[in-house]
Structures are given as C-alpha cells and as structure tokens.
Amino acid sequence: MKTIDTLRFTTAGSVDDGKSTLIGRLLYDSKSILEDQVAAIARTTEKRGQVGLDLSLLTDGLTAEREQGITIDVAYRYFATPTRRFIIADTPGHEQYTRNMVTGASTANVAIVLIDAARGIQPQSRRHAALAVLLDLPHVVVAVNKMDLVGYDETVFTKIKTEFTAIARELGVRNISFIPVSALAGDFVVARELNGANNMPWYAGPTLLEFLESVPVEKQAESAFRFPVQLVSRVRFGAAKENRGYLGRVESGHIKVDSEVVVHPSGETARIAEIITLDGNSESASTLDSITITLDRQLDISRGDMIADAQHPPRVTDMVRANVCWLSTDALNLNRRYLLKIGTRAVRAQIASVNSRYDVQTLTANPATTLNTNDIGELLIRTVQPIMIDAYSVNHATGGLILIDEATNATVAAGTVLADN
Fold first, then answer.
1. Measured distance CA(357)–CA(252) in Å, rounded
2. Distance CA 56, CA 82 (A)
C-alpha cells in the first residue's frame, strides 16, 4: 500500500490579498467541508448582505477577525486528497503580526505568497518572501490572485512574475513558481475550468492544488541521526534482564541495531542493542519514527540528552549564534535570564549580545542593541550548560530554538541556529 505523505504549507501576503478566501476555496472545491459548515457560512454571508458564500469565514475564526475583516492569528486547517494530506497555516498579512507569520511558517514545506493582480506587488509581499528565506522554506509559490478583476489579462500576470522573480533572486529564494488564480471565482485553485470554460488558456501550468499535490516534500532523512531523549524507563532486554530504555522520536537520519552512537553532552559511545516500536522489535528506524532504544552498556542518560550518529555528531557548545523573531511585547533585555530550548533540552541562558536587526524588506543587517515585538535579528546566546545543535539549514529539529523568560515562563522568541557556530 502506498504511503500518503503530508504537506505543510502557509499562506502570506498583504492585507486583503485574499489569503483566507483562497484557503476556503481549496477546502470547498476539494469537498473538505461538512454540510453544516457550509450552511453556517451561508447564513453569516447573508447577514452581512453578501451574495453566495464568503469562504474566508472558514479560516477567520476569531471574533475580532470577523469584526475587523482581517486575519490576526494563525488559523490551522486540515484536508486530504487521494494523493496527499495537507496542513494549512493561514497567517496574518499586516506587518504588526510578523511573529504570527513566523509561527505559522516555521514548520511549512511551502509558502504561498499571494499578490493582488489589480494592486501589484506590495511591500508586505517582499517582506513575506524575505521571511521565507530566513526560515529556509524549500518552496515558494506566488499565487497571483484576483485575476478576474483584471480580465484574466496575461500581460498583468507576466509583469508581476517578472518583477517578483527579480526580488526573489535578490533575496535568495531557492525555488519559486507562479500560478494565476481567482480565489473568489475558483479559477486555477482546484479547477482548471469553470462551467466548461477556461478563462486563462494562455497558462499551461498546474492549478494550485495540482502544484501542492506534486511538489516534493523535502525531508531530512539523509541528515545525520538525531534522537533527543524524551523519557527514560525500564524495559525488558532480550529474554534475560531489564535495561534502561530511551524513548523519543527520530528527528532525522536512520539507525540500525548494532550501529555505533554517541551520547551527548557526555560524549560517551555505545552500540544500539534494541529498537522497540509499538509493533515490537525492529531492526531499524528512520525520521519521525517514535521508538524506544536500548544500548549495549549502561550509561547515565536523562531527558534532554541526545543519542546521535557517532561519525557525524552535533555541535556541543555553550555559545549559540542564531536569527530570532522577537515575540514578546516586552523588549529584549540583556540583563534578564532566559531558558533556551532546543528539542527536549532546556538550559538557562543569557543573551550575550544583539549582533544586528534585519530590515526584512531587504534582509539588510543593521546595528542594534535590543529587539522589539516582531523584530528579527541576530543574537549571540550564552548557555549555562552545554547544548547540542546543528545549523537550521542542515537540521530543523536540532537547529530550531525558542527562548523562554525564566521569570514568567512566557515564550519570548523563536529562532534558527546559524551555520557557522
């Protein structure tokens, strides 16, 4: 039986570019909405004095959003086709909600950047492309929306494509695609034709759903083995005695019985004795498998430690250089104490310096002494105990971090470890 994979994607764009309507159209046309949901949307649409279905209501679930007619939080939705499962993050368009966009995009495989065909490229369009680069998203697809408002004119689409391609090249976007759509009418979101007519015969590429069904899901299965320990318990070792079992999820790479591993932060080595899954013993495990590991000798291992590839170990350090998005409404304070958390390990930390703050329109790094809400900048973080890291570009699981205020337990920043630590 063929395994159906999961694609995570996020939508971004300027206010009123139609992000929520696009998501609603995807869900509605792929028949992923229950009848009672459709009926509720129809009633709300009618109360507003509108005609038809306001599909944006499927994602704009907060009362404040519905009152203002904008998306201010991250709305997650799920749907599936026979080809693939999807997790959608509908993120805010306004600059003041950059932190929400970063949150929604942090686990995405694809970013859909919407551009209003009638208004053209806006400053926020460039901002969201830059954030996609900072978050190392593998694919960016530019959906040129509201093509119905410009008479489905090919020259409008071509002009936006040419201009945005230049921006993407300047920012360093890895893979970019362009699709003309009308989220309101439905053109090229799911269907290629509406009522038997193709309004854009000049476009020969895939519909948005066809693109999402076929774009490769980049996994880090080829990365070195990383297994953050979540729990330690007693398990039966073979048929003779009990041994310590180390529970967790394989975040990257693969492992086999008798493979040599190194345990960090101690640096001690051992070999895999058993790999235990819910179905029993296994000879191997790979990325995203939840397993229990036993080793061929007793070691002092606890939650937060990491079992890793002995030939390609992570970096063990007490100094971390990272790009972060500041989430807190309180400005960064060099004198405050924080917890730095990567994977299952959390250690006390202090921000040694603010190296720079980014202009996210251009990705230019400017001198700074602090970060405020929604700012993105580069920090040097000193930890009290060693922490195991990889560059985020190499391994998202061991290169993604959060900072927690030790006094309030609030998450104040989320970030990515830079390559040259």
1. 31
2. 25
CA dist., res. 411 & res. 344, Å (int)? 15
- Clarify whether residues 50 and 92 are in a common domain: yes
Asked if 379 and 259 sit in the same domain, the reply is no
Reported confidence tier of residue 146, pLDDT bands at 50, 70, 90: very high
Choice among 131-140, 143-152, 169-178, 328-337 with the minimum mean pLDDT? 131-140
Looking at the structure, do residues 342 and 240 belong to the same domain, yes or no?
no
- For residue 201, CA distances in Å to 115, 154, 192, 197, 252 come to 20, 10, 9, 9, 43
Please write the tens of the pLDDT for every residue from 195-222.
Answer: 888 999 999 999 999 999 999 876 654 6
The answer to whether residues 44 and 171 belong to one domain is yes
Q: Which of 320, 377, 331 is nearest to 354 (CA)?
A: 377
Classify 249 in phi/psi space as left (phi over 0), alpha (psi -120 to 50) or beta.
beta
In a domain? residue 1: no
Instruction: Tell me if 395 sits within 8 A of 326, measured CB to CB.
Output: no
